[in-house]
Amino acid sequence: MLDLYFSLVRGNIDKTLRNDSLPPLRRLRAWFDLQIAFLKKAEFRKGCLIGNFSIEASDQSELIRQRLTEMFKDIIESVVYCLKAAVDAGELSASTDVREVASFLYSSWQGAILQSKVDQSVKPLERFKKVLFSQILH
């Protein structure tokens, strides 16, 4: 089930973060928007399956923990790819540590998803995007 879900995640990554036909920061925003649409459709009750598995199962099975680690790495590498393109396009400063920013973004995003699940509200996700694009990636 986790791999089936990840294939959906990967499809959304290919449409957004790795879509070289779009400006890089627009790709990043589109990626977050797709996830928000998914969470809204589920009425914020399910959250992110990868995040849920990380919380519930990562200490129950080494095999699951390793697979989740691979998934996180793949997602973060896609964010890195997008952020590198943003640096190359002049959308971000050349001094941006894209790997650190990507890891921070994904960890923070997972936290925003958890909060939106508890609050059953889009507000934590919208706040995340607002701060990200107005104060961090500007």
Any overview of this molecule?
The protein is an all-alpha fold and 138 residues long. The chain has six helices and no strands. The longest helix has 27 residues, at 62-88.
SSE string: HHHHHH
Helix content: over 70%
Tally of strands: 0
- Overall 3D geometry? globular
Q: What does the average pLDDT come to?
A: 89
Largest sheet: none
Low-confidence stretches: none
Structural class: mainly alpha
Question: Could you state the oligomeric state of the chains shown?
Answer: single chain
Strand content: under 5%
The radius of gyration is 15 Å
SSE inventory with pairings:
Layout: H1 2-15, H2 24-41, H3 49-57, H4 62-88, H5 98-119, H6 123-136
Helix pairs in contact: 2-4, 3-4, 4-5, 5-6
Task: Compose a concise summary of this entry.
With 138 residues, the protein is mostly helical.
Keywords:
138 residues, globular
